[in-house]
Amino acid sequence: MDVANKSPVPEFILLGLSNSWKLQMFFFMVFSLFYVVTMVGNSLIVITVIADSHLHSPMYFLLTNLSIIDMSLASFSTPKMITDYLTGHKTISFDGCITQIFFLRLFTGTEIILLMAMSFDRYIALCKPLCYASIISPRVCVALVVAAWVVGVMHSMSQVIFAHTLPFCGPNKIDSFFCDLPVVFQLAYVDTYVLGLFMISAGGIIALSCFILLFTSYVTVLVTIKHHSSGGSSKALSTCTAHFIVVFMFFGPCIFIYMWPLSNFLVDKILSVFYTIFTPILNR
Fold first, then answer.
1. 66: Cβ–Cβ under 8 A, 6 or more apart, which residues?
2. Which of 42, 49, 128, 204 sits CB 3.0–4.6 Å from 67 for a disulfide?
3. Could you tell me the pLDDT band of residue 176, with boundaries at 50, 70 and 90?
4. CB 115 within 8 Å of CB 214
5. Strand order across the beta sheet in which 173-174 lies
6. CB 18 within 8 A of CB 31
7. Per-residue pLDDT averaged across 175-180, rounded?
8. From CA 172, how far away is CA 217, in angstroms rounded?
9. Rounded to 5 degrees, what are φ and ψ at 30?
10. Among 126, 198, 130, 127, CA closest to 162
11. Stretch (H or E) spanning 173
12. Which ranges of 76-204 does DSSP label H, i.e. alpha helix?
């Protein structure tokens, strides 16, 4: 059928995680708790770092920005999902869906670059401590954060422009609790196989490459720490281990979803919960 003869979809229906009322109430309580803890915990980190002059160092500057991104990542869809469980109103306008895609890609793209910057900071601090002050200067930290946001904006804009070119004039039910390109594009009135290849090249390979770089960096740092048995090294080991857990939980679901965009929707929904709700709470 000719796409021109079909009306565009004005809104989408978010099917959420379950149709069971009992499970929806359970998710409402759990996700509400996680959201509050995420916002309060990350806000305390930001306030503490700003208020304490002893924490005005590159590592804590990057940590503060990570907290801001985590609060943003937790807020782009979770409040709507929590509200939907109470009201039963699970629709989202086309523009609202595109907006969710924009902010999701903005915050995830920015966080990827920021995690790489934090990895670079720890690598220099532990592997080249004598050069740390000259390499990781305040100006460099600001440049890294600005670069992270610029990359995030460019990435999100490219995805939004791509989404706007898709013809949505058929099914409007999204089997998820938020809008993301790998799920939404399957509703488009075009060949999804070609779009699947695009998702693999634009999302999965980039995420996998960044994860490999981060993994290599943290392995190098951990090996360096292993050769230094002291109190400071123990603290550094704890910090790097926590960072690596965040990296693994953030990149793992992303890599799976974007490398296999045509995979099972139930698996995708479960994995989406990890990097949009669970991961932001780990920045403690």
1. 111, 114, 115, 118, 283
2. 42
3. confident
4. yes
5. 91-93, 11-14, 173-174
6. no
7. 85
8. 43
9. -65, -50
10. 198
11. strand 173-174
12. 78-87, 94-127, 132-135, 138-164, 181-184, 192-199
**Residue 1 binned pLDDT confidence (cut-offs 50, 70, 90):** very low
Average pLDDT of the residues of the chain: 81
Q: Residue 54 class from Cβ within 10 Å (0-12 exposed, 13-18 middle, 19+ buried)?
A: exposed
CB within 8 Å of 161: residues ≥ 6 apart? none
DSSP code per residue over 111-130: HHHHHHHHHHHHHHHHHSGG
- Greater model confidence, 263 or 134: 134
Q: Which two tokens stand for residue 147?
A: 């670069």
Note the pTM of the prediction, 2 decimals. Answer: 0.83
Q: Is residue 98 within 8 Å of 164, Cβ to Cβ?
A: yes
Residues 6+ apart with CB under 8 A from 206: none
Is the CB of residue 246 less than 8 Å from the CB of residue 278?
A: no
Nearest to 270 by CA among 14, 76, 16: 16
Residue type, 179: C
Q: For residue 201, give both structure tokens.
A: 């090249």
Least confident span in 56-60, 97-101, 205-209, 265-269: 265-269
Tell me how far CA of residue 73 lies from CA of 278, 279, 281, in angstroms: 11, 9, 11
Asked if pLDDT for residue 237 goes beyond 70, the answer is: no
The C-alpha atoms of residue 100 and residue 92 are separated, in whole angstroms, by 10
Instruction: Convert the pLDDT of each residue in 14-42 to its tens digit.
Output: 888 878 888 888 888 999 999 999 999 99
- For β-strands 91-93 and 173-174, DSSP reports them as unpaired
